[in-house]
Amino acid sequence: MRIDIITVLPELLESPFSASILKRAIEKELVEVHMHNIRDYTDKSYNQVDDYQFGGGAGMVLMIEPIDKCITALKAERAYDEIIYMTPDGETLNQRTANSISLLKNIIILCGHYKGVDQRVRDAFITREISIGDYVLSGGELGAAILCDAVIRLIPGVLNNETSALTDTFQDDLLAPPVYTRPSEYKGMKVPEVLLSGNFPKIEKWREDQALKRTEELRPDLLE
Ligand code: ADE
């Protein structure tokens, strides 16, 4: 999979890809992530990429021209399956969306900033708009990092034990069951007996029951 991220703040996106699972996924060449600074595509003085909104109102808007140039240059190199815009008024990201995006070959993620992008960018280029939740961030970069993390860990080979993504919370619309590790007893707090029993069908049944119980208690909406 190849991900091209278009942003005015590439430095904000450095650390998520420089550690742990995402770093290893890139090193193993299971994913390529390329940053594109919108400022590299403007001819204006002071590398201007934003301007006041027509009609008045607070906040700057990212201009269409440099974004058009960047997206057009990328599309000339390869076909893209989706051009995603990170925005609080997009569809809310969930595990199903992450699963479907993880199957794609090439995607572009455009990060908004300030008041967002000129609406004509959205009309002309964007195929999907994604929000990471009902709150407003200063820009789309942190949302893009979250989307990339949720997607990249699902690419086959990224996690050491592939079944561990399959048993994640939300993967089957259920929350994950509780997990325990050594010691089996700590300050009087014991690990459920069944997990120490070695009876795997019984353990599996216990985990299913716990997942259902947790979901009923904490997220009954998932069962609807
Ligand atoms: N940009 C600003 N707020 C955002 C959000 N909630 N999700 C995605 N991108 C955003």
Describe the structure.
This protein has 224 residues and is α/β, with parallel strands linked by helices. It folds into two domains: 2-152, Alpha/beta knot (3-Layer(aba) Sandwich); 167-223, Orthogonal Bundle (Trp Operon Repressor, Chain A), CATH 1.10.1270. The strands form three sheets. It has a five-stranded parallel β-sheet. Helices cover 32% and strands 19% of the residues. The structure holds adenine. The site of adenine has 12 residues, from strand 5.
Number of helices: 7
The CATH homology group name of the largest domain: SPOUT methyltransferase, trefoil knot domain
Helix content: 25-40%
The biggest sheet, with number of strands, parallel, antiparallel or mixed sense and barrel status, is: 5 strands, parallel
Task: Give the N-to-C terminal Cα separation.
Answer: 33 Å
Quantity of strands, as a count: 9
Q: If strands are numbered along the chain, what order do they take across the biggest sheet?
A: 2-1-6-5-7
So what's the overall shape?
Answer: elongated
CATH architecture of the largest domain: 3-Layer(aba) Sandwich
Enumerate the spans where pLDDT stays under 50 for 5 or more consecutive residues. Answer: none
State Rg: 22 Å
- Helix/strand-derived category reads alpha/beta
Number of domains: 2
Cofactors and ligands: adenine
* Order of SSEs: EHEEEHEHEHEHHEEH
CATH topology of the largest domain: Alpha/beta knot
* CATH C-level category of the largest domain: Alpha Beta
